[in-house]
Amino acid sequence: MTVEIGLEAPDFSLPASNGKTVSLSDFRGKNVVLYFYPKDMTPGCTTEACDFRDHHDAFAELNAVILGVSPDPVKRHEKFIEKHGLPFLLLADEEHKAAEAYGVWKLKKNFGKEYMGIERSTFIIDKEGRLVKEFRKVKVKGHVEEALAYIKENL
Predict the structure, then answer these.
(1) Which of 92, 94, 104, 119 is deepest in the core (most CB within 10 A)?
(2) Residue 94 contacts by C-beta under 8 Å, 6 or more apart in sequence?
(3) Rounded distance, CA 83 to CA 22, Å?
(4) H or E element: which one contains 108?
(5) Residue 2 pLDDT
(6) Considering the domain boundaries, does residue 1 fall inside one?
(7) Is residue 58 part of a domain?
(8) Contacting residues for 87 by C-beta, under 8 A, at least 6 apart
(9) Is residue 8 part of a domain?
(10) What is the mean pLDDT of each run of 10 residues along the chain (155 residues)?
(11) Residue among 45, 66, 91, 144 flagged as catalytic
(12) If 0-12 CB within 10 Å is exposed, 13-18 middle and 19+ buried, where does residue 79 land?
């Protein structure tokens, strides 16, 4: 399955930080900011999560829900949320099925080592469940503002 702008976003069901299993389709009728990130508690991921936290109300005013996805287990997500006061759900994609469906499970290189992991990416999904915008290979600085501006101007 591949993701393509204008087509229905791939649905998935994953364990969430609220103790429930959450599906993308649960959020029909709302705009969804689906962001994939490599790992809880790491500097870049913490900065990104806190930026989304700090803009949470602005997204909510635009009928947008933020969902963060990483391969971390729910327990680690709960600690991450508690430590940083995150007001949105984090989803545990431990088997990286959602990451693969969205094409963000990639071969990465770091300090000469190769491994599979998440390529930081954000997808904007409209109220009807269609993918309307994708941000791949995201640089954290300014990204949340860019995603917010896109929703404000287009949805």
Answers:
(1) 104
(2) 71, 72, 73
(3) 22
(4) strand 105-110
(5) 66
(6) no
(7) yes
(8) 53, 56
(9) no
(10) 86 97 98 98 96 98 98 97 98 97 93 93 98 96 97 96
(11) 45
(12) middle
Main-chain phi, psi angles of 63, to 5 degrees: 60, 40
Q: How many domains in the chain? A: 1
- As a whole number of angstroms, the distance between CA 118 and CA 106 comes to 6
- pLDDT, tens digit (0-9, with 9 covering 90-100), for 45-89: 999 999 999 999 999 999 999 999 999 999 999 999 999 999 999
> Which CATH number characterizes residue 143's domain?
3.40.30.10
Known catalytic residue: 50?
Answer: no
pLDDT, mean over the chain: 96
Q: Please indicate, yes or no, if residue 63 is contained in any of the structural domains.
A: yes
Could you list the residue range(s) of the whole structural domain that residue 73 is in?
13-154
